[in-house]
């Protein structure tokens, strides 16, 4: 193995180690990433770790702070809301783009996933609801011909996942409505509704999550002394 290939492999390894810990909530928002420590763990010099950190900065999972170095990016309420707005646009277009390529077995899989979500809502065991919701939408995007679009969606989802593991996110009151909206979306897909109708509905579906978040924000303000 030549030096360049070895360097790339160590950079990728360092990237995956740090990224996984951020998404799993092991590294929390604002936590400093210690280059020496990561380098020892992955068995490399500082250079591959620094390159991995640059990739993670591009993914918007970390940021560099003066006199501190690399830290896990903090996402405040405004950034969270902006991320949902961005997803509404991207996911609306991606859903419409995917629709013509969905096969019968894809639709059946989507119905199965949504049925599991419905059962979770009915049993009030909502721990896995968010992950199933992500699985539902990603199953649609698996047929999207624009893979750059899917990559962008995935990056925003990952950024929001890091926030979820840090505490912001799932809204139980939104869950039943979300399942119902999935049923309506599936009906539109089966009936081959126009791409404009599907895009508009999928966009509003995500914006409804944003509205739920804003409602919780307002409720919190009302109860503050």
From TrEMBL:
<dbReference type="InterPro" id="IPR011711">
    <property type="entry name" value="GntR_C"/>
</dbReference>
<keyword id="KW-0238">DNA-binding</keyword>
<dbReference type="InterPro" id="IPR000524">
    <property type="entry name" value="Tscrpt_reg_HTH_GntR"/>
</dbReference>
<dbReference type="Pfam" id="PF07729">
    <property type="entry name" value="FCD"/>
</dbReference>
<feature type="domain" description="HTH gntR-type">
    <location>
        <begin position="8"/>
        <end position="75"/>
    </location>
</feature>
<dbReference type="Pfam" id="PF00392">
    <property type="entry name" value="GntR"/>
</dbReference>
<keyword id="KW-0805">Transcription regulation</keyword>
<dbReference type="InterPro" id="IPR036390">
    <property type="entry name" value="WH_DNA-bd_sf"/>
</dbReference>
<keyword id="KW-0804">Transcription</keyword>
<dbReference type="GO" id="GO:0003677">
    <property type="term" value="F:DNA binding"/>
</dbReference>
<dbReference type="GO" id="GO:0003700">
    <property type="term" value="F:DNA-binding transcription factor activity"/>
</dbReference>
<dbReference type="InterPro" id="IPR008920">
    <property type="entry name" value="TF_FadR/GntR_C"/>
</dbReference>
<dbReference type="InterPro" id="IPR036388">
    <property type="entry name" value="WH-like_DNA-bd_sf"/>
</dbReference>
<protein>
    <submittedName>
        <fullName>DNA-binding GntR family transcriptional regulator</fullName>
    </submittedName>
</protein>
